[in-house]
UniProtKB/TrEMBL annotation:
CDD domains referenced in this protein's UniProt entry, alphabetically: p53_inducible_oxidoreductase
Swiss-Prot/TrEMBL keywords: NADP, Oxidoreductase
PANTHER family on file: OS02G0805600 PROTEIN (PTHR48106:SF8), QUINONE OXIDOREDUCTASE PIG3-RELATED (PTHR48106)
SMART domains assigned: PKS_ER (SM00829)
Cytoplasm found in the keyword field: no
Upper taxonomic lineage: Bacteria, Pseudomonadati, Pseudomonadota, Betaproteobacteria, Burkholderiales
Protein name (database record): Enoyl reductase (ER) domain-containing protein
């Protein structure tokens, strides 16, 4: 991507035209957004596809969110706001964005913008922000994961799971995970999981207890919504924590109260998108200091599928099928 760049007035983006399936994602001509004082405008190379995008599409247009989905991008900075320091036009970056990623240009808060790691390509870097911000926030901010503690990650070959396994095992934590096939279990173990359990064939809570000598794990990251309430508590160690992600609706959860009390366990959850910008910026600083030096060497995103922006609907359909292992990216420019 050559620089300097001339920013057009109009761009192509993908809109959620109505609540529904992948077919409601339609290309449209849209204005290129203007930078606020603390923002940067990125000419998007690639955008990541996430479960949150699917949930937003199913709900339909929402005036509280940008009409273009997409929560992470990589690309080149073309404009910066008046209060931005440390990021300049021409920088190759990846960023967490508050919507707008499925478009040729996207705005990002400057505190959530990170340089493309030296050992990675610009396009692959779009697979980093959502998964790594999610991992750090949930394990370290919400669950207060301590040195030496063990974890269980449901969905070990998801975009979040594949990076979380690598990051946490590199930091010295023993990582267990569940996956939907033996092939996915093998992939998770190759990425650093101590053991991966095929949840279609194995009672994971019994497998976790057997693997830990009856102790259980300290933290569980659950992306399955309410399905595993009782089983997660059974797999927990005393004073363990369960953190839930993206239930896809206002799902209720059933928990064994007496067992929860006996273990003094905590069951909680988080939403990354509404997190204050200052807290997201703190996560970005943590990542830059601790994860960035080994990205592309010790820790690599697993890219399952690349599609052009115009095929955003096909990308959503592929993610919903659940048969891929790794991240789906949209090539924008």
């Amino acid at each position: 991507m050559p620089f300097p760049d001339t920013v057009p007035a109009q761009q192509t983006g993908i809109l959620i035209s109505a609540a529904g399936g992948p077919e409601v994602l339609l290309p449209a001509t849209l204005p290129v957004p203007a930078c606020g004082p603390g923002e940067v405008l990125i000419r998007v190379a690639c955008a990541g596809v996430n479960r949150h995008d699917i949930n937003q599409r199913r709900r339909g247009p929402d005036p509280s969110h940008r009409p273009v989905p997409g929560l992470e991008v990589s690309g080149v900075v073309v404009r910066t706001g008046a209060q931005v320091a440390g990021v300049a036009a021409g920088d190759e970056v990846c960023a967490l964005v508050d919507g707008g990623g499925y478009a040729q240009y996207a705005l990002a808060d400057a505190g959530q913008v990170l340089p493309v790691p030296a050992a990675m390509s610009l396009r692959d870097a779009a697979a980093l922000p959502e998964a790594l911000f999610t991992t750090v926030h949930n394990f370290f901010n919400v669950a207060r994961l301590a040195p030496g503690e063990s974890v269980l990650i449901h969905g070990g070959t998801s975009g979040v799971g594949t990076l979380a396994i690598q990051l946490l095992s590199w930091l010295g934590h023993r990582v267990y995970t569940t996956c939907g096939s033996d092939a996915k279990c093998a992939m998770a173990e190759a990425l650093g999981a101590a053991q991966a359990f095929n949840y279609r064939e194995t009672a994971f809570e019994q497998a976790v207890l057997a693997a830990t000598g009856g102790r259980g794990v300290d933290v569980i990251l659950d992306m399955a919504g309410p399905d595993y309430g009782r089983r997660n508590v059974a797999a927990l160690a005393r004073r363990g924590r369960v953190v839930h992600l993206a239930p896809g609706g206002n799902a209720d959860i059933a928990l064994p109260l007496r067992e929860l009390m006996r273990k003094e366990a905590v069951v909680t959850g988080s939403l990354l998108r509404p997190l204050p910008d200052a807290e997201k910026a703190e996560i970005a600083r943590w990542l830059l200091a601790r994860a960035w030096p080994v990205l592309g060497t010790r820790i690599r995103p697993q890219i399952a599928l690349r599609l052009p922006l115009a095929q955003a609907g096909e990308a959503h359909a592929a993610l919903e099928r659940g048969d891929l292992a790794g991240k789906i990216l949209l090539d924008v420019q």
